[in-house]
Task: inverse folding
C-alpha cells in the first residue's frame, strides 16, 4: 500500500516505562493469585511489555464475591446517608484528576488509543463520578397519600445488592466509570473484572478508591479471563446483578448463564450505527462528523458510525469527499500529540477487519480508500488504514455486522421509507444519526428509527445526564442519567393502615 496518500504521525522513541505489576483487590487487600499464575500485556502499538497481571480463577472470583456480599449485608456502605456516599464519590473524582496523566499513559500503552483521546476520556470519567455523586444525594422514593383517609403508602428504592461489573478493552477507564459510581451511589457493593487486554487503569482506580477511604469489600477487582473468572461472576448465587459491556455474542452467553439464578442483567452490546444523509444536509458538517464517527478510537467503538446511508443525488459527492478527508486524519504513534487514530488492539482483530474488507471486495464492492493494514515507520504494532467501501448491497456482512475497525460502509437510498428500512435492517439498535435542514425530516426519522440514541445534525455528543443503551441485539438496560442509577435499585412497596379500620374477612 502506498502510505504517502495518508497522514501519518511519526514514531517517537520506544516507551521505557517500568513494567506495571497488577494484582487483585479483594476485601480491601491487594493479592496475587493463589496459584501464582500471571499473564502479560504488550503494547499493541509499540510491542513492548506493559504489564504483568495476576491471573484470577475460581478461587479469586469466589473470594471477591463473598467479600462484596459480606460488605453489603453488613450495611457499612448501603446504610450510609446519600450525603456521605456523595462526598466519597466527589473525592474519587478529584483523585482521578490528580492522577490523570498516569492513568492516560497506561491507557495508551495497553489499548493503543491516542494520548489526546485518553486524556479527554479521563476528564470525562471524573465528570461521571461527580454526576453520580449528585444522584446519590437526590435519590428518593415516593409517598402515596391519596389511597384513602385510612391508608398511607411508600415506595422505597433500595440497592439491588452485589453487582458483577465486566468491562471491555476499548474504553477501560471510561466504561467502568459509566457503571461503578452509579452502583456505589445506589448503595451496592461490586466485583469488577476489566478486560485482560487493558487491566492496569482499573487497578489504579482501585488504589484511588482505597485512598478515598472506601470500606473494605465494597469494591473488589479480579483480573483474568472470561473463563473461569467471568463465568463465576455471572453464575454465583451471591451475585444479584451483572452489568456487562462487550460483544453481543458474549452478552447472550451471560444472559444464558445468569438465567439459572434469575439475576438481573444489564448489557451494552454491539452496534452497526447508521448516519443517514438527505439532499438538504449541511455536507461540510456531515462529512466531518462521518470521518470522526468511523475513525474515532480506530473504529473500535460500539457507537462507531460504521455505515452511512446517503441519498442517491449526493452519494457520489459524499463518498468522494469522505475519502479525501480520510487521507488527512493523522494515523500512527498513539503517544504522538497529533495522532487521532492509533493501533488496533491486537493482530487477530486486525486480521478479522481485513477479512470483512476482502470478502466485500470479492462480492463486488469497491474500495474507495485503504482496505489493508497500515505500515507506520518505526512501529511494529497493528495498524489499519482508513477505509471506505462503496457499491454494497444490504445483505453483505460488512453492511450488516459490526466490523469494529476503521472501515466505513456506504449504502444509498431514494425515499424516507428506504432509508428507514436500511437503518433498521441490521440486528442492532444502539445509535443512529440523521442529517437534514428540515426539522420535519429529522423528527420523522428519529421517531421511526430503532435505536437507543438518535443524533440530529451531529454525531456522538454525550452528557452524563442522558441515558445510554440500545434496543434489539445492542443490549438491554441503560447507563448514565437517572435511568442509569435506577438499574442498580430495587423497588419496595410499604403499605400502612391508619387506625383499626381493616374490615374483617370472617
Result:
Amino acid at each position: 500500500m502506498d502510505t504517502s496518500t495518508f497522514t501519518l504521525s511519526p514514531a517517537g522513541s520506544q516507551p521505557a516505562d517500568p513494567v506495571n505489576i497488577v494484582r487483585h483487590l479483594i476485601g480491601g487487600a491487594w493479592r496475587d493469585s493463589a496459584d501464582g499464575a500471571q499473564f502479560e500485556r504488550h503494547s499493541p502499538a509499540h510491542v513492548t511489555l506493559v504489564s504483568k497481571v495476576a491471573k484470577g480463577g475460581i478461587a479469586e472470583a469466589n473470594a471477591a464475591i463473598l467479600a462484596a456480599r459480606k460488605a453489603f449485608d453488613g450495611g457499612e456502605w448501603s446504610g450510609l446517608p446519600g450525603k456521605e456516599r456523595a462526598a466519597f464519590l466527589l473525592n474519587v473524582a478529584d483523585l482521578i484528576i490528580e492522577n490523570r496523566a498516569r492513568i492516560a499513559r497506561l491507557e495508551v500503552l495497553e489499548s493503543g488509543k491516542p494520548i489526546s483521546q485518553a486524556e479527554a476520556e479521563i476528564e470525562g470519567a471524573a465528570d461521571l463520578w461527580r454526576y453520580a455523586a449528585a444522584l446519590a444525594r437526590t435519590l428518593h422514593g415516593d409517598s402515596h397519600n391519596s389511597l384513602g383517609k385510612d391508608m398511607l403508602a411508600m415506595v422505597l428504592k433500595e440497592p439491588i445488592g452485589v453487582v458483577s461489573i465486566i468491562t471491555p478493552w476499548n474504553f477501560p477507564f471510561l466504561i467502568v466509570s459509566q457503571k461503578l459510581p452509579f452502583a456505589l451511589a445506589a448503595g451496592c457493593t461490586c466485583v469488577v473484572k476489566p478486560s485482560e487486554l487493558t487491566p492496569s487503569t482499573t487497578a489504579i482506580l482501585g488504589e484511588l478508591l482505597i485512598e478515598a477511604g472506601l470500606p473494605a469489600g465494597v469494591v473488589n477487582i479480579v483480573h483474568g479471563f472470561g473463563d473461569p473468572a467471568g463465568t463465576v461472576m455471572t453464575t454465583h448465587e451471591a451475585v444479584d446483578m451483572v452489568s456487562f459491556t462487550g460483544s453481543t455474542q458474549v452478552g447472550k452467553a451471560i444472559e444464558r448463564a445468569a438465567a439459572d439464578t434469575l439475576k438481573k442483567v444489564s448489557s451494552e452490546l454491539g452496534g452497526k450505527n447508521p448516519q443517514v444523509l438527505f439532499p438538504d444536509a449541511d455536507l461540510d458538517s456531515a462529512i466531518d462528523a462521518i470521518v470522526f464517527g468511523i475513525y474515532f478510537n480506530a473504529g473500535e467503538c460500539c457507537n462507531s458510525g460504521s455505515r452511512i446511508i446517503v441519498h442517491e443525488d449526493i452519494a457520489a459527492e459524499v463518498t468522494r469527499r469522505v475519502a479525501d478527508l480520510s487521507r488527512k486524519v493523522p494515523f500512527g504513534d498513539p503517544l504522538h500529540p497529533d495522532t487521532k487514530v492509533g493501533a488496533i488492539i491486537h493482530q487477530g482483530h486486525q486480521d478479522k477487519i481485513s477479512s470483512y474488507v476482502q470478502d466485500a471486495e470479492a462480492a463486488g464492492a469497491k474500495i474507495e480508500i485503504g482496505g489493508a493494514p497500515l505500515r507506520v515507520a518505526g512501529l511494529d504494532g497493528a495498524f489499519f488504514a482508513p477505509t471506505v467501501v462503496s457499491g454494497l448491497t444490504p445483505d453483505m456482512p460488512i453492511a450488516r455486522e459490526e466490523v469494529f475497525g476503521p472501515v466505513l460502509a456506504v449504502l444509498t437510498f431514494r425515499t424516507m421509507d428506504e432509508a428507514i428500512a436500511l437503518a433498521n435492517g441490521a440486528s442492532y439498535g444502539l445509535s443512529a444519526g440523521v442529517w437534514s435542514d428540515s426539522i420535519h425530516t429529522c423528527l420523522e426519522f428519529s421517531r421511526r428509527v430503532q435505536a437507543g440514541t438518535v443524533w440530529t445534525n451531529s454525531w456522538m455528543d454525550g452528557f452524563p445526564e442522558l441515558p445510554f443503551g440500545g434496543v434489539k441485539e445492542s443490549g438491554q438496560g441503560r447507563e448514565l442519567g437517572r435511568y442509569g442509577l435506577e438499574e442498580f435499585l430495587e423497588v419496595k412497596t410499604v403499605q400502612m393502615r391508619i387506625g383499626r379500620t381493616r374490615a374483617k374477612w370472617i
Observations:
- Residues 274-456 form a domain with the Aldehyde Dehydrogenase; Chain A, domain 2 fold (CATH 3.40.309.10).
- The chain has two domains: 18-269+474-492, 274-456.
- The mean pLDDT is 97.
